[in-house]
Specification:
heterotrimer, A alpha+beta, B alpha+beta, C mainly alpha, A: Fumarate Reductase Iron-sulfur Protein, Chain B, domain 2, 35% helix, elongated, B: alpha+beta, five-stranded mixed β-sheet, five-stranded parallel β-sheet
Chain lengths: 248, 657, 235
């Protein structure tokens, strides 16, 4: 396959960026999208040019490191991460646009690499259950109804890649935040910190400069792990409940 | 300073044997009382004084995150590092199967003693009994801790935890969260760590890579680290250093490890005096998706539960190019069922892996390059029906199809073994302390609990045991016994020296300006290692590897090309620096494999096998952990043997025939 | 030693709520529902036009005398107007602030553009602005009569309505605005349900259907009046 890549190049956070065009010959349908970038980078290196910087690590769709918008869609046309996107999803001769996540809360570090530490700070604002090591009761002391356990798991699957933010026209992190709030708030173990958790995490989300939610639904469409849009409604419910309780 | 040219030095293979090594921290007495005894004997640090102690933790996987979170709760000042952009992305996240614990919730006869027994035996009698028993004891507390953190383990309709049997074990002791157990456990530890960060008890440095260890006055006192965004190299000082940096499987380049997982932290620590134990003990996992071409950047594991219902075969004759469905039964060789009628497709990982290699070496492999065997679900589909197969394996089939574009319901899967886990690592005593006082190693980075072979669902158990429960009392003891460390500043020769060496090394990498990419060297090294230090090893092959590795290393320091500068985000520089360390560690792995003239666990020496081709262990000569002392790049290291004593589990030769 | 991760409670829960994006969205949802309630009552009143001028004018008169004798003439209507004015203001201010926030949160767009989200979702902001402008015209036209075509007569709403819809521009403006109302309600009602936490995977289809139906009935009801005037059914 012969593919033309138009890639966002930006030296560092302060520099101006622009799209640069490259052609890769000999790409194979079985290659992952990141392996296509590897191939391009080996070429660039030998030609004496700077390789394209991009975040990646596990390359099996679970670490959440990879983060690029491919033809206007976070992680590209398939519902998966960029590392699990294969070139068979494209046609020979295609031109593909590759851009970094775009959001004020995710400043560009270099090329396709952005700083997503804002998501960590949202977790730090309450996305945990306070249980110092050694203080846990016997695991079977608190049974959890299977539907609740399944619901918690469904939300716990979030890989923190930030595709939801990248997709959102408002740069909102509501889907990310709601995934963690719902994971922990649905469990009996998470109940004691239920209110402080949602209030703290939503406040942190706002402080980080993410936008508000207009329920456009782009986030859920882009999410490689299928966190559903109604998660946001569930978090709103938790927030309203917590706001009422702390006010009253 | 790395010396790129070692010609004229003594032959690397002429290692010397030094003083035997003893684990002085291991308590005596009955095995079941040792852990309690050690905890009682360990000295304590007054809670009010802990804030005055700084502990560096490198790595945020299961071991690192759990250690950082727990030490912060206890009042220590924790400074933590990870190379990823977030501590949540450490490679523990990719573990699929589950975590073992001797809860005996099934009332199926499980116990701490049985888990201990299985793990010592599974490690092929090359692990310490005391450590393994402690691991089995702690396993039950880990489940309690994780459930309380909100880890969403699979549950039954009654609301209680579900378990399954895993990796051929006869009890159902594996707790799991669908195929994402590692992810869920890691997020639990990450969240606990996040709580510590929010409280100001943990100072977190993401995108910061440890490049050297600072040893001052005989004690580990800090690290040299590079900010991967700005390129700034700086020193961080502390009262103790904890390495939880994972395994070194990426020496092979293609493995199931994350692409950036690396051995730099442990290798640099080794160069600074920490002994490296059993480096040749690597685990090859039989059910990975085969490589599709030279572009392949990593290998993906599929849960070995697939072997419960899939049948493994290759064509009977070499070079059979027919599509699998057109090959009639009489032309198929279900070689595992033929060779091991009792266990069939469920033989242990190493046996299944070697058998696959053998048939492929005979030219009977399938798929691109003939590096694959079929894992066929046709019989299972006929017997159980498509729905039932989908229910059990649907997500794995989907993953396979996404990667290969082949539908396993229609065409047999192709699988091939891949490097998965490294049992070897920094030598540590019972307190997880290395031979450098004040330097601790946790999780896959140490060598301690799995012997020559790790059982399925035990890696997660060990990582969390080390971080949540083993390290904290050990660290208390170390800090309580050490005289208050003298103040250390940037001018101390050990600090300034380590910093200067790191700068020089990166500067050298950047200044070579050669004509080969760092990855091309990694690829070359990986091929040598896979060929000669992979599933089956021979003296001749290892000698060949030991001849080639120094040559590749020499060429690397002459011809590598690293673009850009050190004062910027430079992934090529990161990669080149890691490859430079692989080029040294690989040599030690081959030497260790050459010197261990026996087969045990994941280490198979062709010269040491039984008449029917099984691994033959030689307890009389090799019942020890081999801890290697560094003497110089390419210079013969010194071997220190820690003799292993088995008082509770009697060594037996395993047999699956 | 316990880790202390929580600072003291913020000074005022209400202030914190208003500062929060979810708080502002809640204000939008509640004020939107108030206005939607008004629209439902409004369309029901409008349909009285089909029963002749007498009934329609009497209804207009009743609106001013409702609550008598406890309330003075027009008080109830003014109370309603104040509530609506507050709702419009709250809705508008929140919307403005959230839009500004969204623009700041996503200052750079993608080079590769592609069609995004539904039409109703994308047009919420400009649709809202159109509705606000329409509202001004609508009041000047039929409440104060300032911008009314022909002779505006207080207390003769039937004739006033016929006058307005006898001009081409009156019809054009009105039809455009009612289209905007439909789209706005379609996404707005469903969205308000999500904001107030009523959404769930099981209920999602029902909520979307309810929002679609409300939008459709509302628009059809409003549009029927100018259509009737244009076709001579009402004259």
């Amino acid at each position: 396959m012969r593919l033309t890549l138009r890639v966002w190049r930006q030296r560092d956070a302060g520099a101006e960026g622009a799209m640069a065009t490259y052609t890769v010959d000999g790409a194979l349908p079985d290659m992952s999208f990141l392996e296509l970038l590897d191939t391009l980078n080996e070429d660039l290196l030998l030609r004496g040019e700077d390789p394209v910087a991009f975040d990646h690590d596990c390359r099996e769709g679970i670490c959440g490191a990879c983060s690029m918008v491919i033809n206007g869609e976070p992680h590209g046309p398939e519902r998966t991460t960029a590392c699990q996107l294969h070139l068979r999803s494209f046609r020979d001769g295609d031109t593909i646009d590759v851009e970094p996540w775009r959001a004020a809360a995710f400043p560009v570090v270099r090329d396709l690499v952005v700083d997503r530490s804002a998501l960590d700070r949202i977790i730090q604002a309450g996305g945990y259950i306070s249980v110092p090591t050694g203080s846990a009761p016997e695991a079977h002391a608190t049974p959890v109804a299977k539907p609740d356990a399944d619901r918690a798991f469904e939300h716990a699957e979030c890989i923190g890649c930030g595709a939801c933010v990248a997709a959102c026209p408002n740069g909102s992190a509501m889907l990310f935040t709601s995934a963690k709030v719902n994971h922990l708030n649905v469990l009996p173990q998470g109940a004691p910190e239920r209110e402080t958790r949602v209030l703290g995490m939503v406040a942190a989300m706002d402080e980080e400069g993410f936008g508000g939610c207009t329920l456009a639904g782009e986030c859920a469409t882009a999410c490689p792990k299928g966190i559903p849009l109604p998660s946001i409604a569930a978090m709103n419910r938790e927030w309203l409940r917590a706001a009422r309780r702390t006010a009253g | 300073m790395t010396d790129p040219d070692h010609r004229g030095h003594p032959d690397y293979r002429d290692f010397t044997t030094g003083e035997p090594l003893a684990d002085t921290k291991a308590p005596g007495g009955p095995i079941a009382e040792r852990w309690a005894r050690r905890r009682f004997e360990a000295r304590l640090v007054n809670p009010a004084n802990r804030r005055g102690h700084t502990v560096i933790v490198v790595g945020t996987g299961l071991a690192g995150a759990s250690a950082g979170a727990t030490l912060a709760e206890q009042g220590y000042r924790v400074v933590q590092f990870c190379y990823q952009d977030s501590p949540r992305r450490a490679h523990s996240i990719a573990a699929q199967g589950g975590i073992n614990a001797a809860k005996n919730y099934r009332n199926d006869g499980d116990s701490v003693r049985r888990l201990f027994h299985d793990t010592v035996k599974g490690g092929d009698f090359r692990a310490r009994e005391s450590n393994v028993h402690r691991l089995a004891e702690i396993s039950v507390e880990i489940i309690d801790q994780c459930v309380a953190q909100g880890v969403p383990f699979a549950r039954e309709y009654g609301g209680l935890l579900d378990t399954r049997s895993f990796g051929g074990v006869q009890v159902s002791r594996t707790f799991y969260a669908r195929g994402q157990t590692g992810q869920q456990l890691l997020l639990g530890a990450y969240q606990a760590l996040s709580r510590g960060i929010a409280a100001g008890a943990v100072e977190m440095y993401p995108r910061t890579e440890m490049l050297d260890l600072i040893v001052a006055d005989g004690r580990a006192r800090g690290i040299v680290a590079r900010d991967l965004v700005t390129g700034r190299i700086s020193t961080h000082l502390a009262d103790a250093v904890v390495l939880a940096t994972g395994g070194y499987g990426n020496v092979f380049r293609l493995s199931t490890n994350a692409v950036n997982s690396n051995a730099t932290a442990v290798w640099r620590a080794h160069r600074r005096g920490a002994y490296f134990a059993n480096p040749c003990f690597t685990q090859i996992h039989p059910t990975c998706i085969p490589r599709s071409g030279d572009h392949q950047s990593k290998l993906t594991l599929m849960s070995e539960s697939l072997r419960n219902d899939g049948r493994i075969w290759v064509p009977r004759g070499p070079g059979d190019g027919r599509p699998p469905r057109e090959i009639p039964e009489q032309d198929r060789d279900y070689y595992l069922e033929r060779l091991y009628p009792a266990f069939g497709n469920l033989v242990p990982r190493d046996i299944a892996s070697r058998a696959a290699k053998r048939v492929c070496d005979e030219g009977r492999g399938v798929g691109p390059g003939g590096q694959g065997v079929y894992l066929d679900f046709a019989d299972a589909l006929a017997r159980m029906g498509r729905d039932r197969v989908a229910e059990k394996y649907g997500n794995l089939f989907e993953m396979y199809q996404r990667i290969t574009a082949e539908d396993p319901y229609e065409v047999p899967m192709r699988i091939y073994p891949a490097v998965h886990y490294t049992m070897g690592g920094l030598w540590v005593d019972y307190d997880l302390q290395t031979t450098v006082p004040g330097l601790f190693a946790l999780g896959e980075a140490n060598f301690s609990d799995h012997g020559a072979n790790r059982l399925g669902a035990s890696a997660l158990m060990q990582g969390l045991a080390d971080g949540y429960f083993v390290l904290p009392p050990a660290l208390n003891d170390y800090l309580a016994r050490s005289p208050r460390a003298a103040g250390l500043d940037a001018d101390h020769p050990a600090v300034a020296g380590a910093l200067a060496e790191t700068r020089d090394r990166l500067h050298l990498l950047l200044s070579i300006g050669g004509d080969r990419t760092p990855d091309s060297f990694h690829r070359e090294l990986g091929e040598v290692m896979w060929e000669h230090c992979g599933m089956a090893r021979s003296a001749a092959g290892l000698r060949e590897a030991l001849r080639r590795i120094p040559a590749v290393r020499e060429e690397f320091w002459r011809r590598v090309r690293v673009p850009g500068t050190g004062e910027e985000f430079n992934q090529s520089l990161e990669k080149a620096n890691r490859v430079a360390d692989y080029l040294e560690l690989a040599e030690l792995m081959c030497l260790d494999a050459l010197h261990r003239e026996e087969s045990c666990g994941g280490h198979f020496r062709e010269e040491s096998q039984t008449a029917d081709g099984e691994a033959a262990r030689r307890d009389g000569d090799f019942s020890y952990a081999a801890a290697w002392e560094f003497t110089g790049t390419g210079l013969p290291p010194v071997l220190h043997k820690e003799h292993l004593v088995f008082e509770n589990v009697h060594p037996t030769q395993r047999s699956y025939a | 030693m316990a880790l202390v991760t929580k600072a003291g409670r913020p000074p005022s829960a209400l202030r914190a709520a208003w500062r929060s994006t979810i708080g502002k969205k809640t204000v939008m949802a509640v004020s939107g529902l108030v206005m939607l309630g008004f629209l439902v009552a409004h369309v029901a009143g409008n349909l009285k036009v089909f029963f002749g001028s007498e009934e329609f004018n009497a209804y207009g008169h009743w609106l001013r005398t409702v609550g008598a004798p406890v309330l003075h003439h027009g008080w109830a209507l003014w109370a309603l107007r104040l509530v609506l004015l507050a709702a419009v203001a709250a809705h508008g201010v929140s919307a403005y602030q959230l839009s500004r926030r969204a623009a700041r949160a996503r200052p750079t767009g993608y080079v590769h553009r592609r069609a995004r989200t539904g039409y109703a979702t994308r047009t919420m902001r400009w649709g809202g602005v159109i509705l606000l402008l329409f509202l001004v015209w609508h009041i000047l036209d039929l409440t104060t009569g300032t911008a009314h075509p022909g002779g505006f007569e207080q207390g003769r709403p039937y004739q006033n309505v016929v006058d307005t819809f006898s001009t081409w521009y009156g019809n054009a403006v009105y039809l455009l605005a009612m289209g905007a109302v439909g789209l706005h309600v379609r996404h707005g009602l469903w969205s308000a349900a999500q904001t107030l936490g009523a959404g769930s995977p099981a209920r999602d289809r029902a909520l979307r259907a309810a929002a679609d139906a409300t939008a459709l009935v509302l628009t059809a009801g409003f549009v029927s009046v100018p259509v009737a005037v244009m076709t001579g059914v009402v004259s």
